[in-house]
Amino acid sequence: MQRLEGLMRKAIQEYGMIEPGDRIAVGISGGKDSIALAAGLAGLQKFIGIPFQLVGVTLDPGWNGQRTDYGPIGQMCESMGMAYHVLETEIGPIVFEAREESNPCSLCARMRRGALHDAAKQFGCNKIALGHHYDDAVETFVMNLFHEGRVGCFSPVTYLSRKDLTMIRPLIFAPEREIASAVRKAGYPIIK
Question: Is 22:53 a contact under the CB 8 Å cutoff?
Fold first, then answer.
């Protein structure tokens, strides 16, 4: 985790991701990337020298009409001094039952982003932190090049004018293998 926190600190400083007084909604899906993001930001709070608050947010999509137990993540967040909220959504039933999407990923992603943006506003946050890492940036670049014929990728910091929120990606310099290793070594909970 120390190495990840160093990479996160570099990204935060290089891109001016966090400013004093920020209240940041941390999108926590339960996977290794978002768990590392939450743990890394909570660790950085102690020594980065920028006062900011964190609010962990998990969107339960209700896959197959079932709710997921995010209790272990709640306990992790509590031990780190981070407020944590699980919001039940109907994303799963809408995408797979009501709409019967043949290619559900795009609709699901748009609905999750919208719900996360609304949650950030609901909890008084001005920023949203997502767990996209170095490998995600490379993959997005290659996909854009071969599927759309354009050179481009997502930005480490993006202002969302319609919601008056700023999206940050503090893991942008972190390779996926290092994230997986750090989470495994720390014994953090992963929710499938």
Answer: yes
Contact 116, 15 (CB under 8 A): no
Whole-prediction pTM value?
Answer: 0.89
SS (H, E, C) the chain: CHHHHHHHHHHHHHHCCCCCCCEEEEECCCCHHHHHHHHHHHHHHCCCCCCCEEEEEEEECCHHHCCCCCHHHHHHHHHCCCEEEEEECCHHHHHHHHCCCCCHHHHHHHHHHHHHHHHHHHCCCCEEECCCCHHHHHHHHHHHHHHHCCCCCCCCEEEECCCCEEEECCCCCCCHHHHHHHHHHHCCCCCC
pLDDT at residue 97 in the model: 73
The model's pLDDT over 105-155, given as tens digits with 9 standing for 90+, comes to 777 888 888 999 999 999 999 999 999 887 776 676 566 666 666 666 677
pLDDT value of position 191:
92
CB atoms within 10 A of CB 111: 19
Q: Report the percent of the chain where pLDDT is more than 90.
A: 68
Q: What is the distance in angstroms between the CA of the first residue and the CA of the last residue of the chain?
A: 21
| Tokens representing residue 167 in the block | 């999206």
Report residue 120 as tokens: 């950030």
Q: Please check whether residue 87 is in contact with residue 58, taking contact to mean a CB–CB distance below 8 angstroms.
A: yes
Query: Measuring CA to CA, which residue among 1, 49, 14, 2 is closest to residue 169?
Result: 14
